[in-house]
Amino acid sequence: MKNETGGQWQFETRCIHAGESTDTDTRAIRRPIHMANAYELPTDIDQLLAVFSWDNLDKFQYTREHSPTPRSLEERLASLEGSEDCIVTASGMGAISAALFTLLNAGDHIVATEVCYTGTQGLLGVHLPRFGVDVSLVDTSVIAEVEAAITPRTKVIYVETPGNPLVSISDIRAVAAVAHKVGALLVVDSTWSGLVTQKPLELGADLVIHSATKYLNGHGDALGGAVMGGKKLLGKIREYGIVHLGACASPFNAWLIMRGLVTLPLRMRQHGENAMRVAQFLESHELVSSVRYPGLKSHPQYEVATRQMTGHSGMLNFSLKLELLQNFEFIKHLKLIKHAVSLGHDQSLLIFIPTVFFFDDMVVLDDRQKQKYEKIMGEGVYRLSVGIEDVNDIIRDLTQAFAAVS
Ligand SMILES: Cc1ncc(COP(=O)(O)O)c(C=O)c1O
Questions:
Q1: Is the CB of 189 within 6 Å of ligand 1?
Q2: Whose CA is nearest to atom 14 of ligand 1?
Q3: What pTM, to 2 d.p., does this model score?
Q4: Are the C-beta atoms of residues 94 and 247 closer than 8 Å to each other?
Q5: Cα–Cα distance between 97 and 237 in angstroms, integer?
Q6: What ligand 1 atom has the least distance to the C-alpha of 116?
Q7: For the chain, what are the domain ranges?
């Protein structure tokens, strides 16, 4: 999709047009959803070999390998992230496991963000070691901790930034330099950036991962994931991680995510503006003991966030000056903000994470790490995914729920 000078159209334009075209059968101006599992094969031997070649991603045989609707989404996401190619998957965890099980062998070592999405923590802390991979979980926002964890067997550094649930920010450029010095690959889970506000490949990452379930889809109605990066690496991940392990994308979900992407820049602008207003409101409220939002100067990595991101999405967290159980009373009074997991949806979503439950999920934190996060989290934190409703209504809902428990 090139403009008249052979260059790229602007980002907003590519969100609408990349991977889209007129349907050749009907002249419909949107490509149809192809739900078929299998595609009729040519009988000519050269044509048949062309279908089976990994180089021909516009030829199809079986939907687990790749199929037209997920392929359209892959073209759009590659264009938006600025990568050579993309693989879309059944979920964000499908993308992460496809990448890590392809890149790592028994005896290899990986350094990863210690506090990250609970599913990823389980994969890193429980499952990779089951297959003989050595895992070091460190605070990747502290570059000295990353450097200190490197061993001669380190093959991958895995960074989740912004990190779930504490919105911690790791310096992608600095971690990339550490990885590349020892010949390791840097993989960045950029889900919480919503793609628009952060470009890890430009900062030196080798692979970028998104849970497309979140901001990319944006409407809370489809699961999906994506891995983006160079063609050669992705070819191997498609074969090992998708064809052999199986977490391929559903065509219908791919189509929904494709449709969600059309409004991604508009939504991300509104998520960011709303979250900044909510974060400032929270910071000024007497019942609030702490707020973490990378757009606030009080955020511990404000300087890095400002340098490497062009905005801060809708993700923040805060704690209240309440006893543990009173936190659940607060949630009962919310009328607009939904008490639900997931994030990056159009509607605002909130969950309370008691620190004790959090440690149950973060299966491999040691005592030193637990003490550190106990200090940050107190009794627990609310993870708030600020939606794109009128921000005055979001603040109004928080205000009345605060008043009810004060
Ligand atoms: C940062 C991050 N990565 C990955 C995932 C997993 O995504 P999915 O639920 O699509 O498997 C999540 C889910 O919340 C997440 O927050």
A1: yes
A2: 342
A3: 0.97
A4: yes
A5: 10
A6: 1
A7: 11-261, 264-405
- In CATH terms, is domain 264-405 a member of 2.40.50.140? no
Q: Are strands 109-113 and 154-160 parallel, antiparallel or unpaired?
A: parallel
- Does the C-beta of 119 come closer than 6 Å to ligand 1? yes
What is the largest distance, in Å, between two alpha-carbon atoms of the chain?
76
Q: Is 192 in the pocket of ligand 1 (CB under 6 A)?
A: yes
Centroid of ligand 1 to alpha carbon of 344 (angstroms): 11
Nearest to 98 by CA among 223, 220, 192, 235: 235
The answer to whether 312 and 293 have CB atoms below 8 angstroms apart is: yes
Mean pLDDT by groups of 10 residues along the chain of 406 residues: 89 96 94 96 96 90 96 98 98 98 98 96 96 97 98 98 97 98 98 98 98 98 98 97 97 98 98 98 98 98 98 97 95 98 98 91 84 92 98 98 96
Is 385 a pocket residue for ligand 1 (Cβ < 6 Å)?
no
Residue 208 phi/psi, 5-degree rounding, is -120, 140
- CATH T-level fold of 11-261: Aspartate Aminotransferase; domain 2 (3.40.640)
**CA proximity to 312, closest of 221, 403, 193:** 193
Side chain identity at residue 54, one-letter code? W
Pick from 214, 234, 206, 246: nearest CA to 89: 246
Q: Is 295 in the pocket of ligand 1 (CB under 6 A)?
A: no
In 3D, which of 348, 346, 342, 351 has the Cα closest to residue 191?
342
